Structure formats: structure tokens, C-alpha cells
């Protein structure tokens, strides 16, 4: 084949391929330059992405509350331990067989109650002997005094020598000393006899008894432990940097600082409000803390020795502090912030500094806000700086975003969470 025909065949093949490609790209009834994007746009009734833009521009429903001023108590918090006002382990003061136990375990006993009885017969006999000995010596003393008086009258008549009078006088003095010793012995044996009745030394609650009736006990035998819990102590520690604030407010006990004991969940107070009683006189170098002790009346016995409680010590009251709901405060990479409502119904990210908690649901802020500023308390997760919002009143909860809204948002080029 000649060169001319080869070139002609190549040109024909190129023309055929080009025609087929042209037919595939341009279907009948469709104007050149149109495509599937145009059909999709006409299907939505507007330009591409119009639905997503309308969704993004819609105001976000949020709940807002104003910043208010009020007197805010300033509390220091710590973990405390309940300690009995007095704890006494009752031991017999004399030995013998334990006859009776006169208390029930867990029962409240009063000071002076007889809580146990030891066999008193041996001590009763010793007491009776001491009393008899005293009477015997008193009778001998009376005889000696009578003899001395009679012989002193006979000295002047010469019937008795003056030397013998000294003997009679010394005998009287000796018997007087014997009687005094007998009186002391009687008191001693009476004390030993009284010790057979074991008396409660305090008002308190009886624990589990350590010995049963019928056992022979000694002075080292523990009968029971009594604890006085009305009133009761709560001991807790605070960091040393709080020492100056506590001492300035306490002023050596002149001011009664309020102390609240709460349960482990910080849900509610366990008892009536107590008062700070003592600030310890030294700082623990190992922990960098100092010890404090508060006292509670504990009328319902809600505080129990050995119990762990959360303690709040009120050291001051801030007059006119700025207070907002705690849920309005968000944590960001640069610190705490709130979404603040602007006059044009948009929100701005406002940094704040939280000074202290106010109850369980509010906080006091020291910087970043002014009285009356509106802050977002519900719906923050849908916001960003500059977002338009529909401000709802306190108590009105904004509706949760619909799942389909998230899909449309993705088509418009923004995820639902970012909106």
C-alpha cells in the first residue's frame, strides 16, 4: 500500500472515533454545556447549596440567663473526720467476779449510771473490819483520856508522880493518831467497796461489751467503751495558704465561723450548722496543712465517730458578687469562657474567671462580665462566635437538633456539630 492510502485511512479512523465520542457526550434533547449539576439545581428549585446556606443562617435556639449580684459566702472545703467529744474505756478499779452487766450494747447511758456490778462481799468484809477497828481504838482513846484527867487531879495531892503523867499524856496522843489512821482505813475500804459498782463517767453510747457476767475481772480488764457524741467534734485539714484567711476571720475565737458537714456526695448537710472551735498551733511539714476542729451539737446523732464527711468552712461573705449558673461556664484551651448574648442577637465567646462556687448550681465570677449581661446556659454545643441565636427565657430548654438537619448541613459544606 502506498503512503497516500495509509494517511487517508488514519484520517478516516480519527474522524470515526471523534464522531462516536461526540454522540456519547451529547445526548439527544440536551443542549450543549448542560449537565447533571444543572438538573440537580433545577430539582432543588435554586442554585447549588441553597438549602445548606438557608439552614446555616437560621437562628440557633438557646436558653439565656442574666448575670445577677448577690451576697456570696466564701467557703473553704476539706475532708473531715468525726471524732467523739469524749471516749472512755471502762475498766474495773478492783478485781473480782463480775456479777451483772446493767447496760445494753448501743444504748445511751448517763453519767453516774451503774453499768456493771462486781462481787462486793470481800470488800464489804474488809470495810466492816476497818469500822470495828476504829471503834475499838476510839474506846481505848476514851479510856486513856479519862485516866489522864483523873491522874492529873491526883498529882497535886502527891498520890501520882509527875513523871507518870507524861506517860499517860503520850498514851492519849498515840491513841488519837491510831484513831485518825483507822478513819483513813475506813474511808479506803469504803472506796474499794464502792468500786465494786462500775459507774459510767460520762453521758455516752455504750459499745460492744468485752466481757460477760461470771468472769473474774482485774483492773486491766476492759468492760466496754463509751463515746460521747452530743456534742461531737469534726477534725479536718486545710492547705497552709489558707491559714492567714482563717486566722483573720477567726480572730482567736472571737468570731464563730460557720462550719457545714455534708455527706460524701456533697448532696445535703448531715446535721445542724457547727462552729469552728480550734485552729492548731502548728503546720504539718510533711503535708503542708494545718489542723482545725469544729464542734456540732449533733442532736439527731447524724454524725458518728470515725465517719468521713465533706466540710465547708465559711471564712468570708462577698457583698454584691456576680453570680451566673454553673452550666454557663465552658472550658476552653485558654481557660473558662461563656457565650455572651450581643445586642444584634449574636453570641461572642467571653473569657471569665470563676472565683468560687455558690451552692450546687451557680458560681461567682470575678472578671469578664457585668451585672445584667446575658449568658447562654443551654444549647452551647451548637454555637460558635458570631452565631445568630433565638434567645429563650430561663426554664425553656431549646429543642435538640434533628438528625436530618445534620445531613443537609454536610451537603452545604458544614457539619451539624460545627453549626
From TrEMBL:
Which residue range or ranges hold the Multidrug resistance protein MdtA-like C-terminal permuted SH3 domain? Answer: 322-379
Q: Where is the Multidrug resistance protein MdtA-like alpha-helical hairpin domain?
A: 127-196
Tell me the compartments it is located in: Cell membrane
User: Which parts of the sequence belong to the Multidrug resistance protein MdtA-like beta-barrel domain?
Assistant: 231-316
Which terms are listed as keywords in the entry?
A: Cell inner membrane, Cell membrane, Membrane, Transport
Q: Where is this region: Disordered?
A: 31-61, 386-419
What's a Pfam family this protein contains? Beta-barrel_RND
Q: Where is the Multidrug resistance protein MdtA-like barrel-sandwich hybrid domain?
A: 86-222
Quick check: keyword Transferase in the entry?
A: no
Family designation = Belongs to the membrane fusion protein (MFP) (TC 8.A.1) family.
Q: What is this protein called?
A: Membrane protein
Q: Which organism is it from?
A: Dyella acidisoli
The encoding gene is: mtrC
Amino acid at each position: 500500500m502506498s503512503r497516500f492510502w495509509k494517511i487517508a485511512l488514519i484520517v478516516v479512523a480519527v474522524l470515526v472515533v471523534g464522531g462516536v465520542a461526540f454522540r456519547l457526550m451529547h445526548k439527544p434533547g440536551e443542549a450543549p454545556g448542560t449537565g447533571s449539576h444543572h438538573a440537580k439545581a433545577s430539582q432543588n428549585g435554586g442554585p447549588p447549596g441553597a438549602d445548606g446556606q438557608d439552614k446555616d443562617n437560621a437562628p440557633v435556639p438557646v436558653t439565656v440567663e442574666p448575670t445577677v449580684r448577690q451576697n456570696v459566702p466564701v467557703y473553704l472545703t476539706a475532708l473531715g473526720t468525726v471524732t467523739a467529744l469524749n471516749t472512755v474505756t471502762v475498766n474495773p478499779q478492783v478485781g473480782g467476779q463480775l456479777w451483772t452487766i446493767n447496760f445494753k450494747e448501743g444504748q445511751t447511758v448517763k453519767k453516774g449510771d451503774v453499768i456493771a456490778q462486781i462481787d462486793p462481799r470481800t470488800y464489804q468484809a474488809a470495810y466492816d473490819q476497818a469500822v470495828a477497828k476504829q471503834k475499838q481504838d476510839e474506846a481505848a482513846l476514851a479510856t486513856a483520856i479519862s485516866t489522864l484527867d483523873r491522874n492529873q487531879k491526883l498529882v497535886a495531892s502527891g498520890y501520882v508522880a509527875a513523871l507518870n503523867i507524861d506517860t499517860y499524856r503520850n498514851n492519849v496522843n498515840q491513841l488519837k493518831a491510831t484513831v485518825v489512821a483507822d478513819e483513813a482505813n475506813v474511808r479506803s475500804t469504803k472506796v474499794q467497796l464502792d468500786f465494786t459498782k462500775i459507774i459510767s463517767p460520762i453521758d455516752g453510747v455504750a459499745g460492744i461489751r468485752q466481757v460477760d457476767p461470771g468472769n473474774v475481772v482485774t483492773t486491766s480488764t476492759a468492760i466496754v467503751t463509751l463515746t460521747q457524741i452530743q456534742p461531737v467534734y469534726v477534725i479536718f485539714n486545710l492547705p497552709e495558704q489558707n491559714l492567714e484567711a482563717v486566722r483573720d476571720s477567726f480572730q482567736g475565737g472571737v468570731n464563730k465561723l460557720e462550719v457545714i458537714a455534708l455527706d460524701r456526695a456533697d448532696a445535703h448537710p448531715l446535721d445542724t450548722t457547727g462552729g469552728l472551735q480550734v485552729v492548731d498551733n502548728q503546720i504539718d511539714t510533711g503535708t503542708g496543712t494545718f489542723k482545725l476542729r469544729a464542734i456540732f451539737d449533733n442532736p439527731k446523732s447524724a454524725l458518728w465517730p470515725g465517719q468521713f464527711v465533706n466540710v465547708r468552712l465559711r471564712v468570708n461573705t462577698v457583698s454584691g458578687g456576680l453570680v451566673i449558673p454553673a452550666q454557663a461556664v465552658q472550658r476552653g484551651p485558654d481557660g473558662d469562657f461563656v457565650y455572651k448574648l450581643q445586642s444584634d442577637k449574636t453570641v461572642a465567646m467571653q473569657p471569665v474567671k470563676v472565683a468560687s462556687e455558690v451552692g450546687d448550681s451557680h458560681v461567682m465570677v470575678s472578671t469578664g462580665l457585668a451585672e445584667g449581661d446575658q449568658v447562654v446556659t443551654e444549647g452551647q454545643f451548637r454555637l460558635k462566635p458570631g452565631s445568630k441565636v433565638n434567645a429563650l427565657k430561663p426554664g425553656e430548654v431549646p429543642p435538640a437538633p434533628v438528625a436530618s438537619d445534620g445531613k443537609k448541613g454536610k451537603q452545604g459544606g458544614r457539619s451539624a456539630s460545627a453549626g
